[in-house]
Amino acid sequence: xxxxxxxxxxxxxxxxxxxxxxxxxxxxxxKNIILMIGDGMGTAQIYAGLTANKGKLHLERCTYSGFHKxxxxxxxxxxxxxxxxxxxxxxxxxxxxxxxxxxxQPIASILEIAEKNGLATGMVVTCSSTHATxxxxxxxxxxxxxxxxxxxxxxxxxxxxxxxxxxKFFEKRKDGKNLIDSLRAKHYQIANxxxxxxxxxxGKLAAFLAEEQQxxxxxxxxxxxxxxxxxxLQLLQQNKKGMFMLIEGSQIxxxxxxxxxxxxxxxxxxxxxTIGKVLDFAxxxxxxxxxxxxxxxxxxxxxxxxxxxxxKVEGKFTTTHHTGVMIPVFAFxxxxxxxxxxxxxxxxxxxxxxxxxxxxx
Length: 361
Description:
The protein is of the alpha/beta class.
Protein backbone atom coordinates (compact mmCIF):
# COMPACT_ATOMS: atom_id res chain seq x y z
CA UNK A 1 0.00 0.00 0.00
CA UNK A 2 1.36 3.42 -0.93
CA UNK A 3 1.98 6.12 1.67
CA UNK A 4 -0.78 8.22 0.09
CA UNK A 5 -3.26 5.35 0.37
CA UNK A 6 -2.36 4.89 4.04
CA UNK A 7 -3.09 8.56 4.75
CA UNK A 8 -6.41 8.37 2.91
CA UNK A 9 -7.38 5.25 4.89
CA UNK A 10 -6.35 6.85 8.19
CA UNK A 11 -8.30 10.03 7.40
CA UNK A 12 -11.40 8.00 6.48
CA UNK A 13 -11.18 6.03 9.73
CA UNK A 14 -10.85 9.21 11.82
CA UNK A 15 -13.81 10.77 10.00
CA UNK A 16 -15.92 7.67 10.64
CA UNK A 17 -15.08 7.70 14.35
CA UNK A 18 -15.82 11.43 14.57
CA UNK A 19 -19.22 11.05 12.92
CA UNK A 20 -20.05 8.08 15.15
CA UNK A 21 -19.22 10.05 18.27
CA UNK A 22 -21.25 13.08 17.18
CA UNK A 23 -24.35 11.02 16.45
CA UNK A 24 -25.17 9.86 19.96
CA UNK A 25 -28.26 7.67 20.21
CA UNK A 26 -31.35 9.21 21.75
CA UNK A 27 -31.94 8.18 25.36
CA UNK A 28 -34.45 5.39 25.87
CA UNK A 29 -37.92 6.74 26.58
CA UNK A 30 -38.89 6.81 30.25
CA LYS A 31 -42.52 6.10 31.07
CA ASN A 32 -42.09 7.66 34.51
CA ILE A 33 -39.75 10.36 35.82
CA ILE A 34 -39.22 10.98 39.52
CA LEU A 35 -37.18 14.10 40.33
CA MET A 36 -35.84 14.12 43.89
CA ILE A 37 -34.45 17.37 45.28
CA GLY A 38 -32.49 17.50 48.52
CA ASP A 39 -32.79 21.23 49.10
CA GLY A 40 -29.41 22.67 50.14
CA MET A 41 -27.66 19.32 49.61
CA GLY A 42 -24.02 19.54 48.57
CA THR A 43 -21.33 16.87 48.67
CA ALA A 44 -20.55 17.48 52.35
CA GLN A 45 -24.21 17.05 53.31
CA ILE A 46 -24.28 13.78 51.36
CA TYR A 47 -21.14 12.49 53.07
CA ALA A 48 -22.46 13.54 56.48
CA GLY A 49 -25.56 11.46 55.77
CA LEU A 50 -23.39 8.55 54.68
CA THR A 51 -21.40 8.81 57.90
CA ALA A 52 -24.55 9.04 60.02
CA ASN A 53 -25.71 5.85 58.27
CA LYS A 54 -22.35 4.25 59.13
CA GLY A 55 -20.91 4.12 55.65
CA LYS A 56 -23.83 3.39 53.34
CA LEU A 57 -26.43 5.32 51.36
CA HIS A 58 -29.15 4.16 48.98
CA LEU A 59 -27.96 7.04 46.78
CA GLU A 60 -24.89 4.96 45.90
CA ARG A 61 -27.11 2.64 43.84
CA CYS A 62 -27.39 5.30 41.12
CA THR A 63 -25.53 4.31 37.98
CA TYR A 64 -24.58 7.76 36.62
CA SER A 65 -23.59 11.09 38.15
CA GLY A 66 -22.66 14.59 37.05
CA PHE A 67 -22.71 18.21 38.23
CA HIS A 68 -24.87 21.20 37.45
CA LYS A 69 -24.00 24.90 37.49
CA UNK A 70 -26.69 26.84 39.29
CA UNK A 71 -26.20 30.61 39.13
CA UNK A 72 -29.47 32.48 38.56
CA UNK A 73 -30.21 35.19 35.99
CA UNK A 74 -29.45 37.99 38.43
CA UNK A 75 -27.17 36.50 41.10
CA UNK A 76 -24.01 34.42 41.29
CA UNK A 77 -25.73 32.42 44.03
CA UNK A 78 -29.23 31.13 43.34
CA UNK A 79 -32.13 30.82 45.71
CA UNK A 80 -34.55 27.88 45.74
CA UNK A 81 -37.16 29.67 43.61
CA UNK A 82 -34.83 30.43 40.69
CA UNK A 83 -33.10 27.07 41.06
CA UNK A 84 -36.35 25.11 41.02
CA UNK A 85 -37.72 27.17 38.12
CA UNK A 86 -34.60 26.25 36.14
CA UNK A 87 -35.31 22.55 36.75
CA UNK A 88 -39.05 22.86 36.21
CA UNK A 89 -39.14 25.19 33.20
CA UNK A 90 -35.69 25.12 31.61
CA UNK A 91 -34.91 28.83 31.88
CA UNK A 92 -32.73 30.98 34.10
CA UNK A 93 -34.66 33.56 36.07
CA UNK A 94 -34.21 36.00 38.93
CA UNK A 95 -34.01 34.98 42.58
CA UNK A 96 -37.49 34.76 44.06
CA UNK A 97 -39.25 33.98 40.77
CA UNK A 98 -41.82 31.19 40.73
CA UNK A 99 -42.36 29.65 37.30
CA UNK A 100 -41.75 32.91 35.42
CA UNK A 101 -38.83 34.08 33.30
CA UNK A 102 -36.58 37.08 33.90
CA UNK A 103 -39.27 39.30 32.32
CA UNK A 104 -41.98 37.97 34.66
CA GLN A 105 -43.63 35.93 31.90
CA PRO A 106 -45.07 32.50 32.83
CA ILE A 107 -43.22 29.42 31.56
CA ALA A 108 -44.76 25.96 31.29
CA SER A 109 -43.25 23.47 33.74
CA ILE A 110 -42.37 19.83 33.16
CA LEU A 111 -45.23 18.92 35.53
CA GLU A 112 -47.73 20.92 33.49
CA ILE A 113 -46.40 19.51 30.21
CA ALA A 114 -46.64 15.97 31.59
CA GLU A 115 -50.21 16.67 32.68
CA LYS A 116 -51.15 17.93 29.20
CA ASN A 117 -49.71 14.73 27.74
CA GLY A 118 -52.03 12.64 29.88
CA LEU A 119 -49.56 11.56 32.56
CA ALA A 120 -50.27 11.44 36.27
CA THR A 121 -48.51 14.15 38.30
CA GLY A 122 -47.66 14.59 41.94
CA MET A 123 -45.40 16.07 44.57
CA VAL A 124 -44.36 15.11 48.09
CA VAL A 125 -42.40 17.58 50.24
CA THR A 126 -41.44 18.24 53.87
CA CYS A 127 -42.37 21.92 53.72
CA SER A 128 -45.46 23.88 52.73
CA SER A 129 -46.70 22.85 49.29
CA THR A 130 -46.58 26.57 48.45
CA HIS A 131 -42.88 26.85 49.33
CA ALA A 132 -40.37 27.86 46.65
CA THR A 133 -39.34 24.48 45.27
CA UNK A 134 -42.73 22.76 44.87
CA UNK A 135 -44.38 26.03 43.85
CA UNK A 136 -42.03 26.44 40.90
CA UNK A 137 -43.43 23.29 39.30
CA UNK A 138 -47.07 24.36 39.47
CA UNK A 139 -47.39 28.13 39.97
CA UNK A 140 -46.47 31.30 38.08
CA UNK A 141 -45.85 34.22 40.43
CA UNK A 142 -43.46 37.15 40.55
CA UNK A 143 -42.41 36.38 44.13
CA UNK A 144 -42.00 33.27 46.26
CA UNK A 145 -43.53 35.16 49.19
CA UNK A 146 -47.02 35.13 47.61
CA UNK A 147 -48.14 31.90 49.30
CA UNK A 148 -51.87 32.55 48.97
CA UNK A 149 -51.56 33.37 45.26
CA UNK A 150 -49.45 30.24 44.79
CA UNK A 151 -52.18 28.20 46.52
CA UNK A 152 -54.70 29.64 44.03
CA UNK A 153 -52.49 28.40 41.19
CA UNK A 154 -52.96 24.85 42.45
CA UNK A 155 -56.63 25.25 41.52
CA UNK A 156 -55.66 25.88 37.88
CA UNK A 157 -54.10 22.43 37.46
CA UNK A 158 -55.20 18.82 37.70
CA UNK A 159 -52.21 17.60 39.71
CA UNK A 160 -53.24 14.19 41.02
CA UNK A 161 -51.40 14.09 44.35
CA UNK A 162 -49.76 16.71 46.52
CA UNK A 163 -48.59 16.06 50.06
CA UNK A 164 -46.93 18.65 52.29
CA UNK A 165 -47.73 21.44 54.70
CA UNK A 166 -49.36 24.83 54.10
CA UNK A 167 -52.98 24.21 55.11
CA LYS A 168 -53.45 27.82 56.21
CA PHE A 169 -52.70 29.16 52.71
CA PHE A 170 -55.63 27.14 51.36
CA GLU A 171 -58.06 27.52 54.25
CA LYS A 172 -57.37 30.60 56.42
CA ARG A 173 -56.93 33.13 53.68
CA LYS A 174 -57.15 36.92 53.61
CA ASP A 175 -59.62 36.78 50.72
CA GLY A 176 -61.97 34.53 52.70
CA LYS A 177 -61.86 31.72 50.13
CA ASN A 178 -61.71 28.15 51.36
CA LEU A 179 -59.66 26.35 48.73
CA ILE A 180 -59.93 23.05 50.58
CA ASP A 181 -63.67 23.11 49.86
CA SER A 182 -62.79 23.89 46.24
CA LEU A 183 -60.43 20.91 46.16
CA ARG A 184 -63.19 18.65 47.44
CA ALA A 185 -65.43 19.96 44.66
CA LYS A 186 -62.70 18.88 42.22
CA HIS A 187 -62.89 15.36 43.70
CA TYR A 188 -59.75 15.49 45.82
CA GLN A 189 -59.64 13.41 48.97
CA ILE A 190 -58.35 15.64 51.77
CA ALA A 191 -55.97 14.23 54.38
CA ASN A 192 -54.70 16.03 57.47
CA UNK A 193 -52.43 13.35 58.92
CA UNK A 194 -50.14 10.62 57.69
CA UNK A 195 -52.65 8.04 58.94
CA UNK A 196 -55.31 9.59 56.69
CA UNK A 197 -52.87 9.69 53.78
CA UNK A 198 -52.22 5.96 54.11
CA UNK A 199 -55.94 5.17 53.88
CA UNK A 200 -56.18 6.56 50.34
CA UNK A 201 -55.93 3.78 47.75
CA UNK A 202 -57.17 5.41 44.54
CA GLY A 203 -58.16 8.79 43.08
CA LYS A 204 -56.84 12.29 43.77
CA LEU A 205 -55.23 13.29 47.06
CA ALA A 206 -54.42 16.66 48.65
CA ALA A 207 -52.72 16.22 52.02
CA PHE A 208 -51.95 18.97 54.50
CA LEU A 209 -49.67 17.64 57.22
CA ALA A 210 -49.07 21.02 58.88
CA GLU A 211 -50.62 24.47 59.10
CA GLU A 212 -47.50 25.92 57.50
CA GLN A 213 -44.13 24.14 57.61
CA GLN A 214 -43.78 20.56 58.79
CA UNK A 215 -41.81 19.64 61.89
CA UNK A 216 -38.21 18.45 61.82
CA UNK A 217 -37.64 14.72 61.46
CA UNK A 218 -36.27 14.71 65.01
CA UNK A 219 -39.21 16.68 66.45
CA UNK A 220 -42.15 14.54 65.49
CA UNK A 221 -42.32 14.32 61.69
CA UNK A 222 -40.63 10.94 61.67
CA UNK A 223 -40.83 8.95 58.44
CA UNK A 224 -43.73 10.88 56.90
CA UNK A 225 -41.70 11.50 53.74
CA UNK A 226 -41.11 7.79 53.17
CA UNK A 227 -44.74 6.87 53.89
CA UNK A 228 -46.14 9.73 51.79
CA UNK A 229 -43.91 8.74 48.88
CA UNK A 230 -45.12 5.14 49.05
CA UNK A 231 -48.75 6.29 48.86
CA UNK A 232 -48.03 8.73 46.02
CA LEU A 233 -46.29 6.00 44.00
CA GLN A 234 -49.23 3.67 44.54
CA LEU A 235 -51.70 6.29 43.33
CA LEU A 236 -49.74 7.71 40.41
CA GLN A 237 -48.72 4.38 38.88
CA GLN A 238 -52.40 3.62 38.28
CA ASN A 239 -52.15 5.88 35.21
CA LYS A 240 -50.95 3.52 32.48
CA LYS A 241 -49.50 6.39 30.42
CA GLY A 242 -46.93 7.18 33.10
CA MET A 243 -46.19 9.83 35.68
CA PHE A 244 -44.04 12.76 36.73
CA MET A 245 -43.39 13.19 40.44
CA LEU A 246 -41.37 15.70 42.44
CA ILE A 247 -40.07 14.68 45.86
CA GLU A 248 -38.23 17.18 48.06
CA GLY A 249 -36.24 16.66 51.23
CA SER A 250 -36.90 20.30 52.05
CA GLN A 251 -35.26 20.65 55.43
CA ILE A 252 -31.67 19.69 54.62
CA UNK A 253 -31.55 23.34 53.58
CA UNK A 254 -32.93 24.54 56.90
CA UNK A 255 -30.26 22.61 58.78
CA UNK A 256 -27.67 24.46 56.71
CA UNK A 257 -29.25 27.84 57.40
CA UNK A 258 -29.27 26.99 61.12
CA UNK A 259 -25.65 25.76 60.98
CA UNK A 260 -26.91 22.62 62.71
CA UNK A 261 -24.93 19.52 61.76
CA UNK A 262 -27.27 17.06 63.47
CA UNK A 263 -30.29 18.61 61.75
CA UNK A 264 -28.60 18.09 58.38
CA UNK A 265 -27.69 14.49 59.18
CA UNK A 266 -31.20 13.58 60.35
CA UNK A 267 -32.80 15.09 57.25
CA UNK A 268 -30.22 13.51 54.92
CA UNK A 269 -30.85 10.02 56.29
CA UNK A 270 -34.62 10.54 55.99
CA UNK A 271 -34.21 11.72 52.40
CA UNK A 272 -31.94 8.79 51.59
CA UNK A 273 -34.44 6.32 53.04
CA THR A 274 -36.98 7.83 50.64
CA ILE A 275 -34.46 7.48 47.81
CA GLY A 276 -34.24 3.79 48.69
CA LYS A 277 -38.00 3.31 48.31
CA VAL A 278 -38.01 5.15 44.98
CA LEU A 279 -35.05 3.16 43.61
CA ASP A 280 -36.74 -0.08 44.67
CA PHE A 281 -39.81 0.98 42.69
CA ALA A 282 -37.72 2.01 39.68
CA UNK A 283 -35.68 -1.19 39.67
CA UNK A 284 -38.82 -3.33 39.76
CA UNK A 285 -40.68 -1.21 37.19
CA UNK A 286 -37.86 -0.91 34.66
CA UNK A 287 -39.37 2.14 32.94
CA UNK A 288 -38.71 4.79 35.57
CA UNK A 289 -35.97 7.43 35.41
CA UNK A 290 -34.93 8.71 38.84
CA UNK A 291 -32.97 11.98 39.09
CA UNK A 292 -31.54 13.09 42.44
CA UNK A 293 -29.97 16.50 42.94
CA UNK A 294 -30.20 19.79 44.85
CA UNK A 295 -30.98 23.35 43.87
CA UNK A 296 -27.92 24.72 45.70
CA UNK A 297 -25.70 24.12 48.73
CA UNK A 298 -26.51 25.79 52.04
CA UNK A 299 -24.16 26.78 54.85
CA UNK A 300 -20.77 26.35 53.23
CA UNK A 301 -20.72 23.05 55.12
CA UNK A 302 -17.49 21.08 55.49
CA UNK A 303 -16.51 17.98 57.43
CA UNK A 304 -13.42 18.31 59.60
CA UNK A 305 -13.71 14.98 61.39
CA UNK A 306 -15.99 11.99 61.75
CA UNK A 307 -16.30 8.33 62.64
CA UNK A 308 -18.01 5.77 60.40
CA UNK A 309 -18.35 3.27 63.24
CA UNK A 310 -20.25 5.62 65.53
CA UNK A 311 -21.90 7.71 62.81
CA LYS A 312 -20.59 10.94 64.32
CA VAL A 313 -19.48 13.97 62.33
CA GLU A 314 -17.77 17.24 63.22
CA GLY A 315 -18.96 19.89 60.80
CA LYS A 316 -18.01 23.51 60.21
CA PHE A 317 -19.90 26.26 58.38
CA THR A 318 -18.79 29.40 56.56
CA THR A 319 -22.20 31.08 56.19
CA THR A 320 -25.86 30.85 57.16
CA HIS A 321 -26.81 31.39 53.52
CA HIS A 322 -26.46 29.55 50.22
CA THR A 323 -23.14 29.09 48.43
CA GLY A 324 -22.18 29.07 44.76
CA VAL A 325 -20.64 25.62 44.33
CA MET A 326 -21.58 23.13 41.62
CA ILE A 327 -24.12 20.53 42.73
CA PRO A 328 -24.00 16.76 42.14
CA VAL A 329 -26.66 15.01 40.05
CA PHE A 330 -27.35 11.28 40.33
CA ALA A 331 -29.49 9.23 37.94
CA PHE A 332 -30.91 5.72 37.68
CA UNK A 333 -33.02 4.05 35.01
CA UNK A 334 -33.68 4.58 31.29
CA UNK A 335 -31.83 7.67 30.04
CA UNK A 336 -29.67 7.96 33.17
CA UNK A 337 -26.50 8.13 31.07
CA UNK A 338 -27.37 11.62 29.79
CA UNK A 339 -26.90 13.04 33.31
CA UNK A 340 -23.14 12.46 33.38
CA UNK A 341 -20.88 15.46 32.77
CA UNK A 342 -21.16 19.13 33.73
CA UNK A 343 -24.06 21.30 32.53
CA UNK A 344 -26.37 24.15 33.52
CA UNK A 345 -29.25 23.45 35.88
CA UNK A 346 -31.62 24.30 33.01
CA UNK A 347 -30.34 21.22 31.15
CA UNK A 348 -32.12 18.99 33.67
CA UNK A 349 -35.43 20.20 32.20
CA UNK A 350 -34.15 19.52 28.68
CA UNK A 351 -33.00 16.02 29.61
CA UNK A 352 -36.36 15.21 31.22
CA UNK A 353 -38.16 16.43 28.10
CA UNK A 354 -35.91 14.20 25.97
CA UNK A 355 -36.52 11.22 28.25
CA UNK A 356 -40.29 11.65 28.00
CA UNK A 357 -39.84 12.31 24.25
CA UNK A 358 -41.97 15.43 24.56
CA UNK A 359 -41.65 17.96 21.76
CA UNK A 360 -39.95 21.24 22.67
CA UNK A 361 -41.86 24.20 21.19
